[in-house]
Design brief:
The two termini are 31 Å apart. With 151 residues, the protein is mostly helical. Helices cover 33% and strands 3% of the residues. A two-stranded antiparallel ribbon has the order 1-2. It is elongated, with a radius of gyration of 18 Å.
Length: 151
Amino acid sequence: MPWQEQQQTKEQDVRTNAKVQVTDDIREWDYGDYEGLTSKTIREQRDKSGEGPWDIWRDGCPGGESPADITERLDRLINDIRSRFHEKSIGQLKTNDGPSDVLLVAHGHILRAFAMRWIKRELTEGVSLLLEAGGVGTLSYEHHSIDEPAI
């Protein structure tokens, strides 16, 4: 993985009590043929070739991932988070059964998609959530119920 190949920090230099886990399920969207292009450039190219309008949330990326691909891997991650960290703690009395908070660090498109899937919305509904670079968002549960995910 790229972050391992260029890692300059030794593990013993990391000062945290948190358990750090790296997963491919939250990696950035694979843009395929559109890698490195702006949305404006993609739309101009599609207009010239007669392909019509483009929306990543609906159309995905040729040679890369579709919204269905993204949904599959994010749902897998969400199910893992809920089963490993939340089912035993959300809506329950506080105990020492271990940690229940999870911190995700990732890129913009995938975090926006993650938030949509967290609240069980389809990506094709259009993601009008904006997440600023370096911003912090909190995903939780309405009424402390694991069946009511909320932003």
